[in-house]
Design brief:
alpha/beta; 27% helix; 4-stranded mixed beta sheet
């Protein structure tokens, strides 16, 4: 309860935070009820769902500032892969208003809220798909982490779960590569590639040679705890990205000679 109280107050302020938490505890408000949260220091309001990881994600982005990398030159093209409900996308759009931002999210439920959160942002291009090593079709899997942590796997390799706690399929989703996104949205170079894709980074970076030379910086969360081999695939693909910074679970690497640079860590 203490952790929940702290998170709700951080997200909504003291009065609204305690009210929402009390309403959730008393089941006056159901889990998933959509409410507004105000971005600190601004009049921007974003939609979050009570009783879900949205509260944690909002705090990580806007209070912990996990994507607050101090580039010398603002990125002009950003791919936000694993954009969830658009909270990180809205952060990038506010911080880099001149950037072209492609936000890719496989979950239909999360994507519907993403659309609402970025509806007024003309520089954001939402894509309901999953990032992968090759184009095709994937199965979206729910491991039971409630909105967050949905994974994907190839349709041809899917076997019905034989354990009660095994992830269950929820729907099929299109698979796209970084090259596909760059071609579809007429991007010659990705200045910042942000990935939080719950283990799919293993596949994405196992076949990175067609596009990796056209990326300047990568901000990533690795998920070897879900899928062993993610870190090995990632670091094997970014040999030309010698600058490495860490902020919590987030890792930033920057290509040698990238125009972005860093003011400080």
């Amino acid at each position: 309860m203490v952790g929940n109280t702290s998170e709700y107050i951080s997200c909504f302020g003291f009065l609204r935070g305690t009210f929402f938490l009390a309403a959730r505890t008393a089941r006056v408000y159901p889990s998933g009820k959509i409410v507004l949260a105000t971005v600190p220091g601004s009049d921007i309001q974003l939609l979050v769902r009570l009783g879900t990881p949205d509260i944690t994600v909002f705090n990580d982005i806007y209070h912990e500032r996990e994507q607050d990398w101090n580039f010398e030159v603002a990125p002009k093209t950003i791919v936000d892969a694993g954009a969830y409900t658009g909270l990180s996308t809205a952060y990038f759009a506010a911080r880099y208003p001149d950037a072209k931002i492609i936000a890719i999210e496989p979950s239909e439920n999360n994507f519907a809220l993403l659309i609402r959160n970025v509806s007024k942002l003309s520089n954001v291009y939402p894509v309901n798909a999953a990032l992968w090593s090759e184009p095709g079709s994937l199965v979206l899997m729910d491991p039971g982490r409630d909105y967050w942590g949905l994974t994907v796997q190839e349709s041809d390799n899917y076997d019905s779960p034989d354990q009660p706690d095994s992830p269950v399929p929820t729907s099929k989703v299109d698979a796209l590569t970084v090259s596909d996104l760059m071609s579809d949205y007429e991007v010659d170079r990705v200045n910042l590639l942000k990935l939080d894709i719950e283990g799919s980074e293993k596949e994405v970076f196992s076949n990175a040679s067609p596009w990796i030379d056209r990326v300047d910086a990568i901000s990533i969360e690795l998920h070897d705890r879900f899928k062993p081999g993610c870190a090995r695939a990632f670091f094997g693909a970014v040999a030309d990205f010698p600058t490495e910074l860490r902020r919590g679970e987030k890792i930033l690497v920057i290509r040698d000679g990238s125009p972005l640079g860093l003011i400080s860590s």
